[in-house]
Write a structure and sequence with these properties.
mainly beta; 2 helices; six-stranded mixed β-sheet; two-stranded antiparallel ribbon
Length: about 140
């Protein structure tokens, strides 16, 4: 096998759902165009990945895992979505991260939301909501 030839490898499953392959793995650069490959599939894995489950440096999907993640559930260094976690996070409902911004709930070192838990303190309403599922929360964060 020639050195570096793994980066030219691409796998696309024959099985499809709604015209998308069940699995598409497309790492690296397309040797014909010189541009990064884009993996598109129900499960997509690559430098750039788009799918129901997307894993990559840039991931877009229902569940997005990547350096930059955008999705309903997003996880990454920079993440944006309905529920998101990571370093710098923007979410519609719940954000958890170093810097967490949300329209509803946020947890983080710097958490900005109507209901937040951060280094600046904890919102009592948010604490009561969490205590329903995790009764021991008040041992860690006293009111």
């Amino acid at each position: 096998m020639e050195e570096g030839s793994r980066m030219h490898y691409e796998y696309r499953s024959r099985q499809e759902l709604f015209g998308w392959p069940l699995l598409h793995v497309a790492p690296g650069i397309d040797p014909r165009t010189g541009r990064p490959r884009v993996a598109k599939g129900i499960i997509a894995v690559g430098n750039v990945a788009i799918g129901l489950v997307a894993v990559g440096s840039v991931a877009v999907g229902g569940l997005a895992l990547g350096g930059v993640g955008l999705g309903l559930f997003a996880f990454g260094g920079v993440a944006a979505g309905g529920l998101a976690a990571g370093g710098v996070v923007l979410a519609l409902y719940l954000a958890a991260g170093g810097v967490a911004l949300s329209t509803m709930y946020a947890i983080g070192g710097l958490a900005l939301a109507p209901h937040a838990i951060s280094g600046l303190g904890a919102d009592p309403e948010f604490m009561r909501l969490i205590a329903r599922w995790w009764p021991g929360i008040h041992d860690i964060f006293p009111e």
